[in-house]
Amino acid sequence: MARLLLILAFVAVLFWVYTIVDCAVQPPSRHRGVGKAAWMAIVILLPVLGGILWFLIGRGRASQTVVRRAPDDDPEFLGRMTASARAEQDERIRRLEEELAQLDADADEPPRPTDPGDTPEGGKPGDDDTRGQRGTVG
Fold first, then answer.
1. Residues 36, 28: contact at Cβ < 8 Å?
2. Residue 94 DSSP symbol
3. pLDDT of residue 68
4. What is the distance between the alpha carbons of residues 51 and 20, in angstroms, rounded to a whole number?
5. Using one digit for the tens of pLDDT, what is the confidence trace for 26-44?
6. Cα–Cα dist 24/82, whole Å
7. 54 and 39 in contact (C-beta within 8 Å)?
8. DSSP collapsed to 3 states, 36-87
9. Across residues 17-32, what is the average pLDDT?
10. Sign of the alpha-carbon dihedral angle for 87, 92, 96, 98
11. Which of 36, 104, 133, 134 has CA 20 to 30 A from 87's CA?
12. Whole-angstrom distance, CA of residue 92 vs CA of residue 100
């Protein structure tokens, strides 16, 4: 009988430690009922009963966590935007689209034809000293 009580006490201590750690590492958004500090006090002061209460009542499910959205996907954020902010944003988008269209138009222009007399050295087009001298060392 003493062995059974010793084993039960050991299991109760393990359960108590596990519930303390579980309660401590859960984010505050997953604590139901009272706050995180209150649940920690309940679990610590009422070792087995507090742990049972924690798992039955206090611990929220993972599916209840808040889903974060981008601001443009959040209806509440969009509802809070003022009309002037929307107009300002629309104007900024319009200017950026105009700049992009201008850059596209500049990139689509063919290069200007060069004058046949223009060479990098300033000479005539056929005055290249290196032509015809391939393979010779001089």
1. yes
2. H
3. 67
4. 8
5. 887 777 778 888 888 988 9
6. 41
7. yes
8. HHHHHHHHHHCHHHHHHHHHHHHECCHHHCCCCCCHHHCHHHHHHCCHHHHH
9. 85
10. positive
11. 104
12. 12
